């Protein structure tokens, strides 16, 4: 894969994930707003859509969307930190590890609560 | 005796301008052989019309950079046994620049962008005044230090996909130089530099892919320099240019 050789490093992959997740979110958001609008304009339609979301396949897709949002959100925070904070690489690694750790703990508590 | 294959299968780009094709050569392997040694051996023993560029052979002049197996590298300091793929080498002219002939890329767009980015010194004093003293331990001087040892090799420029996608993008090397000028206490053109790197095609076009930093042979970090410019231009925007 000679055409890709100069790109095979973590920051480039992070860029790729950020662009793909950003594009995925951009495609999903109009659908999302349309569904929310249905609560007002077509409550029955919305209810039948609610049933459709019980489908395991749709549940999997929902997981995908949450993953996209998480990937893009943390990717975005990573970029903002990388560009806007004049910290050393080590400080940034520590800060990222702290945020990831906090997120893990918080998510575990959240999952228990619901 | 060397481990592995005793001959190298070398594929070299031949052509002028936008046309050309890869040509194959067999080159004997030698100990501590560099990629530049391979190219020179072909030119001296197989085909004297092969065009390429080098001067210092010790990683100082920045003229020998080429694409080696898809990665931009300074060929005089790249050992064959670090980069060959089972004895195979594919060598082409630097990416993102026009080709003059064979392995010689046209560096004009690269250097024109240095000037566009105001990557040059704007003196504040004349020769009749005393030389300015810069404290080597000062924050600005240490920041400038980290960006200063650029040899203008264009490896970062060839590695950058933003340059590939946007011909107006000033690119990592020019922006890196602009950042060392911004941190030069003697420089009187700070506002001009910040204005020059804020235009469309300037530092804010960088997507922080970091291929520049990954491949810079002198281990500079244009990525960090560009982030510095993003911060300084943003700061000067909120201060209304001050
Ligand atoms: C939820 C809706 C969102 C959508 C549809 C979206 C979409 C996008 C897209 C398409 C890009 C361009 C990627 C690129 O230039 O490579 C982008 C970039 C970016 N996004 Fe988002 N985004 C969303 C939310 C967020 C959030 C919540 C954050 C912050 C945490 C964020 C931070 C960023 C940043 C910093 C960039 C710049 C990336 C770069 O320079 O390459 N975005 N976004
Ligand atoms: S960090 Fe910016 S300048 Fe460096 S390779 Fe990426 S886009 Fe280009
Ligand atoms: S920043 Fe590094 S890769 Fe770019 S031109 Fe200077 S020395 Fe070469
Ligand atoms: S020949 Fe001067 S840097 Fe390689």
Count structural domains of chain A. 1
The largest beta-sheet of chain B arranges its strands as 2-1-5-3-4
CATH first level of chain A: which class?
Mainly Alpha
Please identify the oligomeric state: heterodimer
The structure class of chain A reads mainly alpha
- Separation, N- and C-terminal Cα atoms of chain A: 46 Å
Topology of helices and strands:
The complex is a heterodimer of chains A (114) and B (242).
Chain A: H1 10-41, H2 43-52, H3 56-84, H4 89-113
Helix pairs in contact in A: 1-2, 1-3
Chain B: E1 7-14, E2 21-28, H1 35-45, E3 65-68, E4 71-74, H2 80-83, E5 88-92, E6 99-101, E7 104-105, H3 108-116, H4 139-148, H5 155-159, H6 161-165, H7 172-182, H8 190-196, H9 211-215, H10 222-238
Parallel strand pairs in B: 1-5
Antiparallel strand pairs in B: 1-2, 3-4, 3-5, 6-7
Helix pairs in contact in B: 3-7, 4-7, 7-10
The structure holds protoporphyrin IX containing FE, iron/sulfur cluster (2 copies) and FE2/S2 (inorganic) cluster (FES).
EC number (chain B): 1.3.5.1
Domain 2Fe-2S ferredoxin-type (chain B): 8-97
Subunit structure (chain B): Part of an enzyme complex containing four subunits: a flavoprotein, an iron-sulfur, cytochrome b-556, and a hydrophobic anchor protein.
């Amino acid at each position: 894969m000679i055409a890709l050789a100069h790109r095979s490093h973590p920051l480039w992959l992070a860029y790729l994930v950020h662009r793909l997740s950003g594009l995925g979110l951009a495609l999903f958001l109009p659908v999302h707003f349309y569904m929310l609008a249905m609560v007002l304009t077509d409550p029955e339609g919305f209810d039948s859509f609610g049933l459709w979301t019980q489908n395991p396949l749709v549940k999997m897709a929902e997981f995908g969307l949450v993953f996209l949002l998480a990937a893009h959100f943390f990717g975005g925070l990573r970029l903002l930190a990388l560009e806007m904070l004049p910290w050393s690489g080590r400080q940034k690694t520590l800060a990222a590890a702290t945020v990831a750790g906090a997120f893990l703990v918080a998510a575990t508590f959240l999952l228990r609560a619901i | 005796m060397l481990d592995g294959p005793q001959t190298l299968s070398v594929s070299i780009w031949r052509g002028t301008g936008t046309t050309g094709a890869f040509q194959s050569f067999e080159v004997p392997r030698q100990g501590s052989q560099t990629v530049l040694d391979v190219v020179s051996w072909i030119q001296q023993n197989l085909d004297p019309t092969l065009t390429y560029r080098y001067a210092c052979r010790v990683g100082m002049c920045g003229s020998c950079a080429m694409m080696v197996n898809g990665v931009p590298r300074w060929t005089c300091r790249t050992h064959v046994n670090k980069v060959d793929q089972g004895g195979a080498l594919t060598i082409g002219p630097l990416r993102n620049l026009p080709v003059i002939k064979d392995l010689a890329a046209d560096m004009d767009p690269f250097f024109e962008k240095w000037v566009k980015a105001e990557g040059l010194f704007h003196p504040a004093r004349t020769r009749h005044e005393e030389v300015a003293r810069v404290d080597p331990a000062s924050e600005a001087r240490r920041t400038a230090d980290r960006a200063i040892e650029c040899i203008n090799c264009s490896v970062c420029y060839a590695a950058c996909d933003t340059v590939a996608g946007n011909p107006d993008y000033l690119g990592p090397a020019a922006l890196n130089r602009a950042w060392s000028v911004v941190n030069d206490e003697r420089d009187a053109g700070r506002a001009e530099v910040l204005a020059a790197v804020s235009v469309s095609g300037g530092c804010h076009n960088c997507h922080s892919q970091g291929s520049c930093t990954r491949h810079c042979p002198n281990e500079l970090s244009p990525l960090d320099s560009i982030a510095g410019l993003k911060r300084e231009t943003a700061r000067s925007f909120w201060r209304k240019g001050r």
